[in-house]
Amino acid sequence: MTDPWNPADPGVLRLPSGRLVRGRGLRRPLDGSAPTPSYALYLLGRQPPPVTWEFRWIRWPDFRLPADRAEARAALTEAWERAAGERVEIACGGGRGRTGTALACLAVLDGVPAEEAVDFVRSHYDRRAVETPWQKRYVRRF
């Protein structure tokens, strides 16, 4: 079991169950004092740069949906399960569209009704999270 995220830190989302997950944009480097994740899920169109922690990469081009939806569902479920006892990070390039969509899917797994998950993430993570109509639809159908 890893020490949890500090809920007051930037990008940390508290799900209704109490699980804490950090969302962020990879274009903004971590400052030296920021804690590192124990596990990360990277949502990018191409292979992410190497990191020192365990991660999984889902091919998910910017402003789009995951290339393999079954693989994405499995990866999101794994991230949600691991967030019960680990510092899990979800990240894409900017930290809003794909990351917000993934966080909304985690909220659905955590019991938030699918029709309310985007609003939940916008209220508790970033008001501009989940950027496209098809990303919103993906969450509703998740």
Automatic annotation (TrEMBL):
Listed Pfam families: PTP-SAK
UniProt KW keywords: Hydrolase
SUPFAM superfamilies membership: (Phosphotyrosine protein) phosphatases II
Domain Tyrosine specific protein phosphatases: 67-124
UniProt protein name: Protein phosphatase
InterPro entries the UniProt entry points to: Prot-tyrosine_phosphatase-like, PTP-SAK, Tyr_Pase_dom
